[in-house]
Amino acid sequence: MRVAIVAESFLPQVNGVTNSVCRVLDHLAAEGHEAMVVAPSRGPAGYAGFPVHATPAFRLPFYRSFRVGLPSRRITSRLADFKPDVVHLASPTVVGASGVAAAARLGVPAVAVFQTDLAGFARQYGLRGADPAIWAWLRHIHVRAARTLAPSTATMAELEAHGVPRLRLWGRGVDLDRFNPAHRDEGLRRELAPGGEVIVGYVGRLAADKRVHLLAELADLPGVRLVVVGDGPAAPGLRRRLPGAVFCGLRTGAELSRTLASFDVFVHTGANETYCQAVQEALAAGVPVVAAAAGGPLDLVRPGGNGLLYPPDSPALMREAVRRLVADPAARARMGEEARRSVLSRTWTSLCERLVEHYEAVLGEGEAAWTASAPDPSAAPAGA
Predict the structure, then answer these.
(1) 144 and 30, same domain (yes or no)
(2) Helix H or strand E encompassing 247
(3) How high is the pLDDT of residue 276?
(4) Sheet strands side by side (includes 246-249)
(5) Would you say the C-alpha torsion 278, 281, 283, 286 has a positive or negative sign?
(6) Burial class (CB in 10 A: 0-12, 13-18, 19+), 256
């Protein structure tokens, strides 16, 4: 099968979209498929033996490390040259809109992978009135896809409520070797918490949309050492608010594996997660999770089993959930064991096999099945 992936971001940016695309490419290469990538990237010219084609992009003024792609006619020409059987749209927004239009012109089915809660993202940056326009634009893209894959049941329900058709559930895989309790490092633990404190950790982007300012609620918990892994525009302010925390910066590979497995409790502050890969990786590392009861974590965290959930708008209850786990080593140990067991079936191999089945399904349905309700590609979305 020939798969063209049109991604909203890719290497060298490290985020959930990039990680998913890389894992899919690894699987396609291992199974003997052909692939290509189009993305707003100044990164590698290839990945897993497949070409990567860059599109024009610009940097967000409030988030300089994040590049946003621009619409480009190059996407149609790249796809026409490659002659794909299916177009994979990774978190389609701007580049993805060009991708779905190109697929329609070429008569090729597009499978859209919904991954980013743009409306929630905009609200966290003060754009509270943007919801109608954002959802109109997203619907404009997704109604032209042969199938939209939602990462969680909560996200699937939201997409359905906003009129997105042909929905299927497709989660995310996790590397059970890379994220494993076996990587717990007592030497690193002594370095991070020399007083023997309970290590409460956060891993992720340090940005307003992740609500990282809520970590300040944990700053004065007795017997706790707060460890923050990641980088982003909120990092300087967060360092000032948390002078007693350990800031590790961005960690990847074996360094991230050791750090995450060495936590005692993982806390996630975001409330607009369509899936939340960071939570899943913590569970795989055998670390109980405290997360907001919203979006993807609702599918991942079993309260009292592998972690605890708190109402998204209650920082006080987030603090109380963390305090409960800090005060109960036996509960942490039990939940840590259950955390690992809860994700054992969520390997990238099994998830990517299901993805290829989705590709095959839309090819089997034929063009009439996915173009019947699709609008004119040149028409503007209502409400946008």
Answers:
(1) yes
(2) strand 246-249
(3) 95
(4) 246-249, 224-229, 198-203, 265-267, 289-292, 307-310
(5) negative
(6) buried
